[in-house]
Every structure is written in C-alpha cells, then in structure tokens.
Amino acid sequence: MDISHRDHLLAAARGALAAATLVACVLAEVAVFALRRGDGAAGMLYYLVPVSAMLLLYRSRRRPRVDDVGLVDFSCLKPPRRLRIPVAGLLEHFKLIGCFDDGSVEFMTKVIEASGMGNETYFPPSLHHIPPAATHAEAIREAHMLFFPALDDLFAKTGVPPSAVGAVVVNCSGFCATPSLSAIIANHYRMPSDVKTCNLSGMGCAAGVIGVDVARNLLRTHDMSYAVVVSAEIVTVGWYSGKDQSKLLLNCYFRTGCSAALITNSGGGGGVKYRLVSLTRTNQTANDRSYRSGYRDEDDDGITGFTLGQGVGRMVSELLRAHLLTLSLSILPWREKLRYVAALLLSTHLRRRRHHHDKLSSNSGAGTIPMPDFRTAADHFCLPSSGRPMIWRLGQGLGLGEREMEAALMTFHRFGNQSAASLWYQLAYMEAKGRVRRGDTVWQLGIGSGLKANSLVWERVADDDHFATERNGRSTLGPWVECIHKYPVTEA
C-alpha cells in the first residue's frame, strides 16, 4: 500500500475512533443520570469511566511537542564537476568580465585569499559565461538544477515518496519566483492537491531553522506525517557587477549548493535519524542599527547588490548574547548552569572590587566575562559558514576548540558559503567522518539579516552506521563522497 494511502487510512481510523469514544462518553453520562446510579462506589465508577475515556481522547488528539518532531534524513547536493571554479580561475574571471575596475579586483582577490576557500567550490552555469548571464530564466534553471537532484536523493534514501509529503517549505533569500519555488517542486513531483507549500525569502543564512519551525507548526496543526524543508541560494541573481566594495563580498563567499530535509511528527518513532530537542529564535529587527546591518539596495550606478552595513560585527555580538542567554536556559545541564552562575557572580564581584580600588585605571571596568561551556550541552557544532576569520572569531567566542570548528571550516573550504544549506553540509561532514553516534547532540546555529540568530539542537536516535557506505542504494557520505579522506586540510 502506498504510504500516503496508508497514512490517510490511519488518520481516518483515528478520527472515527475519537468520534466513537466521544459518543460513548456522552451516552454513558446520559445513562448515569437516567438510571440515577450516582451513589456509592458503583456510582463513582460510572462517572470515572467516561471521564477517563475523555482524557484518553484528549491525549490521543494532542498536538506534537518539540520532542515529537524528528528528522528522517537529509540530502545535500554535490554539483557536477563541470561547474567547479578554482580560485585562480575565479580571479582571472573577474578580470576578463570587464565590469570590475582594478580596485575591485584587488579587493576581491585579498578577501578570497584570506577566506580559507579551496579550489573545489561551484558556480552555477550562468556565472561561467563572460559576461555573466544573470537573468530570470537562468535563475529558474539554477533552481531546477539544485532542487530536483537533492530531493531525488532524499526520497530514494528515505523510501518516502513525494505523494506522502504533506508540506513543502523552501527558503531562498535572494530570489522569489512566480509561481513560487515551492510550487515548482510540487508541480515537478505531482504532489497531492492538498499539499501545503510555503516560500521564505529575505531571511538570510538563518532561514534553515525558520523553515524547520514552519514545518513543525504545519505538522502540529494539520493531519500530515511528513514535511520537506529545502534550503538553497540562487547565486545567479545574487551576483553584483558594480564597484561598491561593501557589495562585493557576496561575489567572494557565496557558492552553489542545496539541502533537503525530511521532517516528521514522530520524533521517537522508527525510521527517524534525529529527534528535535530545542528550537530557539531571536531577532533584533526593532533595532534600527541591527535592521540596517545587512540589506539589498542599489549603488550609485543603479546596480543592485547586498550591502553589509557598518558595525555589523558589534551588532552580531549583541544579538548572540541575547540568543545564547535564551538558548542556554533550555539546553545546558543544571551542573553547568550552576557553575556559570557562580562564575558570573564571582566575576562581577571582582570587577567591582577592582573598580573600587582604582577608578582611574582604564582597565578597571574591563575583564573577561565568563561564558557557559556549550560543549556540555552539545557534542557537535554547525556554525555560520562565513569564511575562516569569522568562523574562528565566532567559535572562540563560544569557547570552542579547533575540532569543534572543523566542520564549518572544512565545509567553507570545500563548498564555500551556501547560506542556510551550509549547516546541513556540515552535519553531512561529521556523519561522513563517523563522529555522530547514537545519543549525541548536534547544535546548528544560523545568523541572518534582520538581524536574527536561530538555533536547532538535534539528538541522534538512530543506530550508528559509521561503516555503512550505502543505505537504500545511496551513499551515506553525501556530498563528501570521493573527498572526505582528504579532510581536514591544514591550509583551510
């Protein structure tokens, strides 16, 4: 029997059972009053039976909690080798295009050489042309090239057909098509007429977490078993051909990539690889400085590009402090919470004493503010993939070592910044290395425009399959097949 038909029959059976239980409860109450059997132990029993049945009915119909949501599996696209863009070739490409002056080429060269990017990243076909063909038609072709191979692999690995999917959530920050990107997917796979399609744009690198949150809420409120979350960035329309250096960074960092994740509302059920432990979202959109820290606009020549505002680093630091405070309350073990509170009180006391004894000292009020040890709450970390300097700065601020930052550094080296999809490429890296064991927790942290910081914490519930090279006929190494043995690289 087809999975979608089976799920429909099960849902209908649950509904019929609930209706029958409700009718039986009402008839039992009517019988109690009609027979006036309300005295003594027997009377209490007559009342308790329908009440208990009503409670069981409520429990069976309750909405899933966070920990009822699970990740069946995920897939990450490995683009064809013909789309590879080595660093030397990219720098020559910048010179041959003709739209960049010498200052712009020199600036992008310095950024790329210092970023830790390798020679195996990918550009879409449109950006291999001279000049680049950054058109709407090419952006649609890029979307097809990204979505369908990733989703084909996901459906093949999980054994769940497209007809069983109740919701499709697509996040892509810079490109919003009509019909929507989620409609393109639903049309291609001929999904049922009642499938829920959602399209998210402008959310930045934190959009993947938002997509999972939307899928979770759809699973809660609708009678469905599966939702697909697709994360990608259409690089064709993100290309900037002007001379404003604040807009040239996307040309340096962003590359082609796509991820697809299958979410279900049975977090502890069979066939689930990860259980959702925590989902936390924080934004500072009401703050004008935060709101203007990253935005898309036109330069003086009328060319559209994405601008990173001044002071974005300081605003990200403020955002992370607020986000980590909220997140730590839900994921840190009590022992670490108590240790952190004690360290914070001691640090505050020492700073006050130092300030009291030497008010004229420039360092009197300064001092290292203690941070919780997040390694007690998560075993593996997926960080924003924004280049080696930013990854190191963020990782050290969180108290992480080089091994905890390895997945982010190597993903950027191999694939570049793929926006929200980068977090899934990092998880695929750790799985390909055989590091994620049953019972381990994985923290995915995304930071996007707005500004917003979003986190997912997953717990591995599936059995370890570190030595299995295939599952359902598909490689378990994902996009790292043929290259995982080369990593980590020392020059990244």
From TrEMBL:
Gene Ontology molecular function: any one: acyltransferase activity, transferring groups other than amino-acyl groups
Residues of the FAE domain: 62-345
Signal peptide (residue range): none
Residue ranges crossing the lipid bilayer per the database entry: 12-35, 41-58
Enzymatic class: transferase
Pfam family name, one: ACP_syn_III_C
GO biological process, one term: fatty acid biosynthetic process
Highest taxon of source: Eukaryota
Entry keywords, A to Z: Acyltransferase, Membrane, Transferase, Transmembrane, Transmembrane helix
Stretches assigned to the Beta-ketoacyl-[acyl-carrier-protein] synthase III C-terminal domain: 379-459
E.C. number(s) listed in UniProt: 2.3.1.-
Family as reported in the entry's similarity comment: Belongs to the thiolase-like superfamily. Chalcone/stilbene synthases family.
Record-given protein name: 3-ketoacyl-CoA synthase
Species this protein is from: Oryza punctata
Lineage: Eukaryota, Viridiplantae, Streptophyta, Embryophyta, Tracheophyta
